[in-house]
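Workshop exercise sheet. Pairs work together: one partner reads the sequence aloud, the other fills in the structure field after running the prediction. Swap roles for the next sheet.
Pair: D.N. / O.F.
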Amino acid sequence: MTFLNLFSRLKSVVIGMIHVKALPGTPLGCMKMSQIIEEACREAVIYRDAGIDGVIIENMHDIPYSFSVGPEVSACMTSVCAAVRGFCPSLPLGVQILSSANQHALAVALASGLDFIRAEGFVFSHVADEGLLNACAGDLLRYRKQIGAEHVQIFTDIKKKHSSHALTSDVSIEETAQAAEFFLSDGLIITGAATGVEADPHELREVSQSVKIPVLIGSGVTYDNIERYLDANGMIIGSHFKKDGHWANAVDPERVKKFMGKMLELRK
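Structure field:
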């Protein structure tokens, strides 16, 4: 399946974030799974009814993140994702599991009927706030093949946020993009330095010109700056859709409706 087949358009696809409440066993975990699932589904319905193009489900509240993701996380995320799929049977859905639990995300996507994952650390090593993260493309794509999940697309961060890229300071973002394309990424994600921070429109132009696969913006898109990113194939929006524009808050229906209303006008 291609990007166009999945989203039915090639430009300015809007993907909203569901930041799943802290899961059992994590430091901030305090809710029952039934409550966590109910909240995720409530936000999914808000997005669906506002006419959004897709949704990513992510365990963002599981701070501090760990590279050692246990089976309970995969089990809980599968339950959440399957429930959201039930409320949004035809909406393109993806999943990301922090931190860099990309094989777990593929397994969850396959089990719960999702369409894509967002993957960290696809090419080149970098130092994230969780520690040193090495490239995973070879193992990840082999795992996708082995479990029969080749229909699940993998959108990959490059020069990702919350990270130091001193190790690869001699490798430009365009070269990183080309390496990810060569290693069979289904789409690239460009971000600012941190969650909610604007991505650089210049980087969007440079990367888009250097590859033939979709390029998405992964942070910092708002109602006020949307025009700067219309040439992106997609934009992943979390913080701006939340109450007061803060990622940890609940999705605000009015913010989503206002944004999508402007997007529909811009698409005409």
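Discussion prompt: The chain is about 35% helix and 15% strand. What would you look at next?
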